[in-house]
Design brief:
1367 residues, alpha+beta, Transferase(Phosphotransferase), domain 1, Leucine-rich Repeat Variant, five-stranded antiparallel beta sheet, ARM-type_fold
Length: 1367
């Protein structure tokens, strides 16, 4: 088109949207972006996004528009795939106009220079570098721009530069004496800036003609007036230099038209403008690019090579350009994928940009990648990428300066404050708190960023609909307050330093600081009060546990008392959330310590309330709080005496936590008391609960080891639930008085039937006389706790009266309540009510006591777990077979009756009876065989109409109830059939004489394990020869002429390391050296293979031990591996149910055992560690180390003491009994000549096998040792211990052995000692015949066990494959 256009006057001007409509309906007009004589520019919307449309109105049809369109399409083809060029993508022509279309980019470089956050130096260098890259890309394709200016340089939100609006249609040369061409084609912004190269201005002429007194249109169609030519790269270099000058001078243009013409004539120099640029490399670059002579200018590529490492850092070339270019070229990644890519490449980015964490001012290159992150974070869709973006912003902030954090990172973080995902809002609070926490200096312009920007932006989060967000705010409010205060102090410090230099009065600035501090405190106070009053307790708890003490420091002592403490006290009014109350006592110490001793009168009633809390966890936390307050000296002496009276009885409490908390408080009090107070006031209170005198009462460990045994948990719970608590304590006091009067034999007075029944129940639960005094010591605590749990009602209700207690609703008496659950077990009372043939009256049914209601609603398993007040309940005693058959028959009758009564019309509903439990068949009805009797009996029962859906639900409940009853009955039968050993323990005077009953030598390898079935009908032996043999116990007492095994199982899988009976001896599991566990089903005394577990040896290691326990719902086979894995496998579902990993630092696992309560699991290691795991939470609860670090060879649990484990360790024939609760070694067995419990090992013999036997009133330990002896240890009467089976190599006249007990370092040690026996010499004794062969073992005894036949037998197995049976 060139110069033909300036002289044509438009004939008609239409709106730009009119031209868009004429061309195509694809483009929807949005707004106008400007209009000049040359182009009308608009923004339009398409299916692919926003576009820029430039409209050229056709006034002269003779213009060569087609040639220009073809040339522009060629430019688009050439520049396709370039990363920094944005040519016109489409050219459309109609009769009225020609349209040029390209992608819309919001900001040009001209706009970006004046937009916050302002460009920093590294960003300006990056844009200049990209501009040269764009020129290099288009020049290599022989494409030249022709009109480079800041308005045609587009900058994206992530600082990526795009060179747009290639002007091939504009004239190359302009007349220097006619500015109209320049104004028409190049001055579209009306700024009069001129970046056209000097060589493009040439001499030319212009003509005017006056027609009728008016100036005619200009005619510049004559080519002889203006020079023609092509664009050159040097022309674009000059224009780019001018753009870079404007970029580095904060928007100051180097030339306008007059200055450029003067520069051509040598009358103007732009060097004054260039002096504003501080960087010398950039100045030299621009000075060389805007030289007047085009031959002196270099190409874009040469400029980049010249300035590499100078104006442009090295990482621009080696990493940044190539990395960010991936996000600008096809395929274009969506924002979520960009975030994932940045997260993945973060370490690579920091490495290539040479990021240094200690020198944040040198890490400015990260800002260029940060802009990409921030641009993408505003358009994310998924919550996981939003959280990832927040985390990335936090990671970037660790390497950047404070001004960049406040200007660039914090605003983008706060953008997520209104996100619709609660997890994102919660993460925002945590991230921005961590980000602001690292601020070390703040610019003066950002002094009020917290009160004016950050806190207002987060203000809505205190009332956020999601409790998760409010809890996150509560967790971080203390840190935000501290950071805000630190920023305020930094500003105050800098102001004082400046004023000291000016030598002015600082009083004004101090007043300003006080006002700003007060304003900040009021802002935080409003938010804290809102959070402390939150309806969700999780928010309150989060605020207390995360910085309540720091908030005290922030507010000062007065406000800490008035605001924080006053609100925290109200938390104790919540009787339903024990976690909140426990958290209160956890965190009140810090508040009290800051407020000072003045808070003690306020805290006293709160602490007393905590000591009487219904939750033992809260009581324990209260005791810990008392200990801390005592150590800090915040409680006066008189108050300590009062608390001692309440705390000391806790030494007998059944909860181990409470006992430990009480010991901690008593030790803390002992440290504050003087000697006189300790001996006169403290020791008399404590001595009653100790089994020995303790001098250092301030040492918690000594006090714990000296405590008497606590009140059994079942006894404590039963007393607490009793409705005759007053009479019970009166009786206990009377019995205590009788014990004091009668020193020898006590004769108690007779009790009435109800009290006798209570004492029988307590005795069956384990209460002894020594426990009665401890229960009386806790009388006040028990009564208070009983009143609280009973709803502050101390009087017992009379029979027939309803129990109405505050906070409880009697569901039975409420008719409108619809039950939404079905009980699987029917109580016998309901069956009796229904046996009369009429439904029970709803209004006249008498109310039972609370205990009887609880007992009747519990199933047998729950009763066995929590206890029952009805000692005569049928569920507490095993059922006989006749009762079981009767119940099965009754169940069949009931189900048949239900089926008969379930017939009716399916459309209108059905008539069915009230409930299955209320149906009763008269005795002998089925025997008569008449259905009429059944229907006649059913007619007496009230019928109710039900919908078909409810009938289906009812049938489903009946089916589930039948299935549950079948399981319960079969379990009861199994328990009855498999418990002769438990019902017939050995006699109290059982002492095996060491007589050999059987000598079994079928195995060809070492005996590794002997296991006895639950019913003691047979036992199994596992050997290194790869076989398992089953033996019948009854045949070992001389009843059979030949002792042979009943069955031999050859696994052919290597040595068998471990063996265990499973599922009530119905299954047998064996672990082999090839890391396989074989499971066999035992039917009719024969074992058949049913399963094989293959354990990955590389991952888990070798299986060292197996054990089994049954929870009722699961039959778990637990095995331990040498690599520290403990795995539970359910034999019923054939899948792994849990997996634990022991700490490798504790050593390699060698043995394991499970407690009979199925609550915890213990393992022993090669380093002498005993690690106990809680199977409910699958966490390690304690670890006990052997003093010598000796290997644990065998581990069992004590059958009587609930928290004891017994371990046999390497050396000295040592067996130790450890208390898991305290970690103390309570007892030890020592059969070695070395000094007891000595650190120096003198005997290499060790116990390989051990077995604990419980008699009526005694505890016996059987041990098998590597010295080939089997020992009988009487734990209660050590002098009765002896060697049951000597070794075969022992001399016939060996020294006599005696056993005695010694107390060594708090441990009772039973020691084996030898005394020389005076016997006559061999010459004095005449020979009567050949020597009797030795009956003892000739090799190491590897295991020992007992079985019950007609008498109790001892089974031993040795390493030479011999099994011996003793009596």
């Amino acid at each position: 088109m060139g110069n033909q256009l300036t002289g044509i006057a438009p004939s008609q001007i239409l709106p730009v949207e009119q031209y868009l409509t004429d061309v195509s309906s694809e483009y929807e007009f949005e707004c106008s972006l400007g209009s000049t004589r040359f182009f009308k520019v608009a923004r339009a919307k398409t299916k692919e996004g926003l576009v820029v449309v430039k409209v050229f109105v056709i006034h002269d049809p003779s213009l060569p528009l087609k040639d220009h369109r073809i040339f522009m399409e060629d430019i688009h083809t050439r520049l396709n795939g370039t990363s920094n060029c944005l040519p016109f993508q489409k050219a459309v022509q109609s009769e009225k106009a020609a349209l040029l279309i390209r992608q819309y980019v919001k900001d040009s470089l001209y706009d970006r220079i004046s937009t916050r956050p302002f460009l920093i130096n590294i960003e300006k260098r990056w844009l200049a570098f990209q501009l040269l890259c764009a020129l290099n890309q288009c020049h290599k394709m022989k494409v030249y721009h022709g009109d480079i200016k800041s308005e045609n340089v587009m900058v994206t939100g992530w600082t990526w530069l795009l060179l747009s609006d290639f002007a091939s249609f504009k004239p190359v040369y302009l007349p220097e004496d006619n500015p109209s061409d320049f104004s028409y084609f190049f001055d579209t912004s009306r700024r009069r800036t001129c970046y056209v190269a000097p060589e493009r201005f040439v001499e030319g002429g212009w003509k005017t003609a006056e027609v009728g007194g008016q100036t005619a249109n200009l005619d510049i169609t004559d080519s002889s007036d203006v020079k023609k030519g092509e664009l050159t790269p040097a022309m674009d270099i000059f224009s780019a230099g001018c753009v870079i000058t404007e970029l580095f001078t904060e928007g100051t243009p180097p030339f306008d038209l007059s200055q450029l013409l003067a520069y051509i004539n040598g009358e103007y120099s732009p060097w004054k403008v260039l002096e504003k640029i501080d960087d010398g490399s950039i100045r030299d670059l621009i000075r060389h690019m805007i030289k007047k002579e085009p031959n002196h200018r270099l190409s874009a590529e040469e400029y980049m090579i010249q300035q590499r490492g100078k104006a442009f850092p090295e990482y621009f070339f080696s990493f940044l350009k190539l990395y960010l270019q991936r996000f600008a070229t096809a395929p274009i990644l969506p924002p979520d994928d960009r975030i994932i890519r940045l997260k993945k490449d973060f370490s690579k980015i920091t490495k290539n940009l040479c990021v240094k964490e200690d020198h944040c001012e040198e890490n400015v290159g990260l800002v260029l990648v940060l802009s990409l992150l921030e641009s993408s974070s505003r358009k994310l869709h998924f919550f996981n990428t939003k959280i990832m973006a927040l985390q990335l912003l936090l990671d970037f902030s660790k390497y950047l300066t404070t001004d960049i954090i406040l200007d660039r990172i914090v605003p983008y973080m706060l953008h997520f404050a209104n996100d619709h995902f609660p997890r994102v809002r919660a993460e925002l609070v945590r991230v921005i708190t961590q980000c602001l926490k690292t601020i070390k200096s703040v610019p003066r312009s950002d002094a009020n960023i917290f009160p004016e920007y950050i806190f207002p932006s987060l203000s809505n989060l205190t009332q956020d609909p999601s409790a998760m967000v409010r809890a996150a705010y509560a967790e971080n409010i203390a840190q935000l307050a501290e950071t805000g205060l630190r920023v305020l102090e930094m500003m105050q410090r800098s102001d004082l330093e400046e004023k000291e230099e000016d030598e002015t009065d600082s009083t004004t600035f101090q007043a300003s600081y006080d006002m700003e501090l007060l304003s900040l405190q009021e802002t935080i106070q409003q938010k804290v009060v809102t959070l402390l009053s939150d309806p969700d307790n999780m928010v309150k708890q989060a605020l207390m546990e995360n910085g309540i003490t720091r908030l005290c420091v922030f507010f000062g002592r007065q406000k800490a008392n008035d605001v924080l403490l006053s609100h925290m006290i109200t938390f104790l009014n919540d009787k339903t959330d024990w976690k909140l109350r426990g958290s209160f006592f956890d965190n009140i110490v810090g508040v009290a310590a800051y407020v000072g001793w003045q808070s003690s009168p306020v805290l006293k009633p709160l602490l007393e309330q905590g000591l009487n809390d219904t939750e033992e966890f809260v009581v324990y936390r209260t005791l810990r709080t008392l200990q801390s307050l005592t150590e800090l000296g915040l409680l006066p002496k008189t108050m300590l005496h009062e608390f001692l009276q309440e705390v000391v009885p806790f030494l007998a409490h059944s909860g181990i936590w409470i006992r430990q908390g009480a010991v901690g408080f008593i030790s803390a009090v002992a440290k504050t008391f003087n000697i006189a107070d300790i001996h006169c006031k403290l020791l008399p209170l404590v001595q009653v609960f100790l089994n020995k005198s303790v001098l250092q009462i301030d040492k918690e460990v000594y006090l714990l080891n000296a405590l008497e045994s606590s009140v059994p948990r079942k006894v404590f719970d039963y007393i607490l639930k009793s409705n005759m608590l007053g009479r019970l304590f009166d009786t206990l006091q009377e019995r205590q008085y009788m014990r004091k009067v009668y020193r020898n034999k006590v004769t108690y007075s007779e009790m009435d039937e109800s009290m006798s029944q209570i004492f029988r129940k307590l005795s069956s639960l384990g209460m002894a006389e020594e426990h009665e005094d401890k229960i009386l010591a806790m009388k006040d605590y028990i009564i208070k706790l009983h009143r609280i749990r009973a709803g502050s009602s101390e009087t017992e209700p009379r029979n027939g009266e309803e129990v109405n207690r505050p906070g409880e609703i009697n569901v039975i008496s409420v008719r409108a309540v619809t039950r939404r659950h079905a009980e699987l077990e029917r109580s016998k009372d309901s069956k009796m009510d229904g046996s009369t043939g009429t439904p029970p009256s709803r209004g006249k049914k008498k109310q039972q006591t609370l205990d009887s209601q609880t007992s009747s609603s519990m199933n047998p398993e729950w009763k066995s777990m929590f206890g029952s007040s009805d000692s005569s309940s049928a569920t507490d005693s095993p059922k006989s077979k006749s009762v079981v058959k009767a119940e099965l028959q009754e169940k069949k009758i009931s189900s048949s009756t239900t089926s008969l009564t379930s017939q009716g019309s399916p459309n209108s509903g059905s008539f069915v009876t009230m409930s299955q439990g209320q149906i009763s068949i008269p005795e002998g009805t089925l025997a008569r065989g008449t259905i009429g009797a059944i229907t006649q009996d059913m007619n007496k029962i009230m019928a109710t109409r039900y919908n078909p859906c409810k009938l289906e639900l009812r049938n489903l409940v009946h089916q589930q109830r039948d299935r549950y009853n079948d399981e319960i009955l079969s379990k009861d039968l199994l328990i009855d059939d498999l418990s002769p050993w438990e019902s017939q323990p050995p006699l109290s005077n059982w002492r095996p004489k060491g007589l050999l009953v059987a000598h079994l030598h079928e195995h060809r390898g070492s005996i590794n394990r002997i296991q006895v079935s639950c019913d003691h009908s047979y036992f199994a032996t596992a050997s290194n020869d790869g076989s398992i043999k089953l033996w019948e116990c009854d045949r070992l007492e001389g009843k059979s002429s030949i002792n042979r095994s009943k069955q031999t199982i050859n696994l052919k899988d290597g040595k068998i390391n471990s063996l265990v009976f499973c599922e009530g001896s119905l299954s047998l599991a064996a672990a082999t050296e090839n890391n396989n566990i074989h499971v066999y089903k035992i039917e009719s005394g024969k074992a058949n293979a049913v399963n094989k577990l293959e354990i990955d040896k590389e991952e888990f290691g070798k299986v060292v031990d197996v054990t089994h326990y049954d929870t009722g719902a699961q039959s778990v086979l637990a095995y331990a591996t040498v690599n520290g894995y403990i795995i539970g496998f359910d034999l019923r579902s054939n899948k792994e149910v849990w997996k634990l990993k022991n700490d490798p630092k504790k050593g390699l696992i060698t043995t394991c055992a499970v407690h009979h309560s199925q609550c915890w699991f213990a393992v022993g290691t090669s380093s002498g560690s005993h690690v106990c795991w809680d199977l409910r939470f699958q966490l390690p609860i304690t670890s006990i180390e052997h003093p010598m670090g000796a290997r644990v060879r065998k581990l069992i649990v004590h059958p009587k003491e609930q928290s004891w484990i017994i371990s046999a360790t390497q050396g000295n024939n040592e067996v130790s009994m450890w208390d898991v609760e305290t970690g103390a070694r309570r007892k030890a067995l020592w059969a070695s000549p070395a000094p007891p419990l000595s650190q120096k090992q003198a005997s290499n013999h060790s116990v390989y096998g051990m077995h604990m036997v419980m008699t009526d009133n005694n505890v016996i330990m059987l041990t098998a040792s590597s010295d080939m002896r089997a020992r009988f240890w009487d734990i209660n009467y050590p002098a009765n211990s002896y060697i049951m089976a000597p070794a075969a190599l022992d001399p016939g006249h060996q020294p006599s052995v005696s056993y005695r007990s010694r107390l060594i370092e708090g441990t009772e040690v039973i020691i084996e000692t030898y005394t020389k026996k005076q016997t006559s010499t061999s010459e004095d004794i005449p020979r009567c015949g050949p020597d009797t062969p030795a009956i003892g073992h000739h090799d190491v005894i590897s295991d020992i066990n007992t079985c019950m036949a007609s008498q109790c037998l001892v089974i031993t197995g040795s390493r030479d494959g011999v099994v011996k049976v003793w009596k």
